[in-house]
Write a structure and sequence with these properties.
Four copies of one chain form a homotetramer. Chain A is mainly alpha-helical. The first copy, chain A, has ten helices and no strands. Chains in contact: A-B, C-D. The interface between C and D is large, with 49 and 49 residues. The first copy, chain A, binds a DNA duplex (21 and 21 nucleotides) through helix 3.
Chain lengths: 216, 216, 216, 216
Amino acid sequence: MPKISEEKRRARQAQILEAATRCFARDGFHHTTMEEVVRESGLSPGAIYCYFRSKQEMVEAISAVRHARDQALLDELASAASLRKGLDRLALALVRMLEDAKEKQRRKVSIQFWAESLHDARIRKVAERGLRQRGGLTAALRTAQRSGELPAGVDVESLSRVLFALFQGFILQQAWEPGLDSGAYVRTAMALIKGILSKAAPAPRRKAAKAVTGLL
Amino acid sequence: MPKISEEKRRARQAQILEAATRCFARDGFHHTTMEEVVRESGLSPGAIYCYFRSKQEMVEAISAVRHARDQALLDELASAASLRKGLDRLALALVRMLEDAKEKQRRKVSIQFWAESLHDARIRKVAERGLRQRGGLTAALRTAQRSGELPAGVDVESLSRVLFALFQGFILQQAWEPGLDSGAYVRTAMALIKGILSKAAPAPRRKAAKAVTGLL
Amino acid sequence: MPKISEEKRRARQAQILEAATRCFARDGFHHTTMEEVVRESGLSPGAIYCYFRSKQEMVEAISAVRHARDQALLDELASAASLRKGLDRLALALVRMLEDAKEKQRRKVSIQFWAESLHDARIRKVAERGLRQRGGLTAALRTAQRSGELPAGVDVESLSRVLFALFQGFILQQAWEPGLDSGAYVRTAMALIKGILSKAAPAPRRKAAKAVTGLL
Amino acid sequence: MPKISEEKRRARQAQILEAATRCFARDGFHHTTMEEVVRESGLSPGAIYCYFRSKQEMVEAISAVRHARDQALLDELASAASLRKGLDRLALALVRMLEDAKEKQRRKVSIQFWAESLHDARIRKVAERGLRQRGGLTAALRTAQRSGELPAGVDVESLSRVLFALFQGFILQQAWEPGLDSGAYVRTAMALIKGILSKAAPAPRRKAAKAVTGLL
DNA sequence: TATGAATGAGATTTCATTCAT
DNA sequence: TATGAATGAAATCTCATTCAT
């Protein structure tokens, strides 16, 4: 059967998306022509349109991939036994991410999606999944509050926004200044957050500990 | 020579920039055609090209205006006598800003400039002025550190980044969710920052107070 | 006012439609590219899109013009005092039409619209107006039948179809063989039709004569 | 060599042509893509190109088939012993044809060939065979004239054109209005033609009868 | 022969910009 | 200065055709 295997098909799709992502990171997707994607991917216009019905659809696919990565970053931390530990894992993951030069480039594409989501309904829909994800974080913070790890007076809704902001602002600044000291940033941000955690961490009783699981 | 007065010239320019900003906030500037700006401004294509040599130049002019506003927001706080007081003023100014629906719309344009600055050299140049501005904030924090208001262990460079991030992330989240509780966000963010200020604020000697001036 | 006058606007539109019609007659509209229309019209692509939103819209405009001419041809005969006289006028008009070489070319475009109307809803709609026009012819024949000019046994619905067919078939054959003897064709066709008219034309009483007015 | 039998080859070819004809009747051949023909035929692009070197060649093949059918329609009547009888057989054959819904669809394709023949040299060539066929009809009419069945004053060249026109116009009208009363049309058309036949049919002598053979 | 992914020339359309008025 | 019709380079996308398998 000369029909391409599902595996090959995925590989081609990835080839296109990666080429396009490189172009987008370099020039922005409004300045990237299909011809450039064609050149960068080493394929032909027709081939690309075998996999994506339009440039727009390709952009959306990349948007979805980008958001999935952001989500993975936070999800990876969900298994922490406590807020404190979760934060430590988040810090570690962030720093690790920054070591990947490719990923650094891709972050630029994420920022373009922020802008695009403000007027493109389809991109917005993808972005909104990320917003819902913050709901999960808020819930986790609430649990931490019940377990005593977080003082009762803290507004968990706002705190989750603050945590997101620290992440988003960092992405942005790093795109502008690739050489920034990310370790220092993460440490300082962590210090800030830990500053409002309850001074004496509660004796993490089994139950409480469990509740916090899947937290941040 | 039918040269119009300088005053009229400025008025026309403002008329164009405001129309363009409305279009850009609504549709993004890559989806905004000159024809739309023409329609929104009530002028003619030729007239617009009397005031701006290209769409790009118009975009740059708006970019400059946007960044000037951001700067003003921070500059307004520069006259505080201490970090603590500066933060309070910043908080106040932020909340005030959010009450202006028009300004809310314009924020969307700022986000587009973030994206655009990643590959457009001219826009980037404007954005970089904003980055340099952070240098001022860092210096101010350093002064606060010397005065004892900020513990010696804090990395002021990172802290200024964190403060910027809190601002940027907020802008972004507010663009996505216009109804978010900005008061709560600002309070929580402030609580975080104040959490790392020295427990006992130093007697703000005149000299120290002065140093903090022009701070945040 | 540099705004173009309505007159000039119409002239430009005509310029485009005529250029396009020449192309269509020569190459068929599926083989005619916009670039060719551009060349033939002496304008630029953009100029054409100032007057027509798409190639399709341009085709429709021409279709409407074509059908209007066909209609005019029949309408011109509507003022005859009797069926017999109406037929004579039709014959004359047909022959006259065939002397115009340009019109001869345009007939080719009409035939293309016949084909196109079979699957293009918009073109079909225009063609259907032509069909409705046959209704008028049928009514006129019925009047002639009442007045005794046409024998009672004749099915007027079918007869109007036959008259249309004689017209359509002629258009087609003339497109294939531009040199055909149109006078002879018309004479023969007329002889056929007159062959079924009542042998003794009824005394055309005023009333009857009037009724026939607006006939064929 | 994996050469398939001639029989299979023909079957495949027919399969393709039938699928293509369905597509062409439905959408017109300019709007029909090879992909659609592929889908409709159940084959693959490559397979189709085994049997036809190009879309054009496929179109030509269908054109030839269409014209052969038209010819057959007239040829079938060629064995009549007199013009009058021949016309009766033609009438019968026409009505019979109209009962076949498939054939009705295919007529639409014929109309497209009329249009296409106006600028496509290859299609034109096929159409011209149809024109030559009219020559045969003219000759037959001339024979009928000699035999006295047709009055001497009739221009046989024109009459054959008229007969063709009645056929062509009917095809066209039926494509537009599939529900038209074809029986009535045929009866009326026949009445018209018979109206100019010699009142008293000549004693059809053997010779004359033979001459008329192959007539209409 | 048959497959179908891939090709790439070429079509339509857009839109920032110009220039005669 | 101001107008707006016109320009034309360039972008997206299509689809008849090919060719490695």
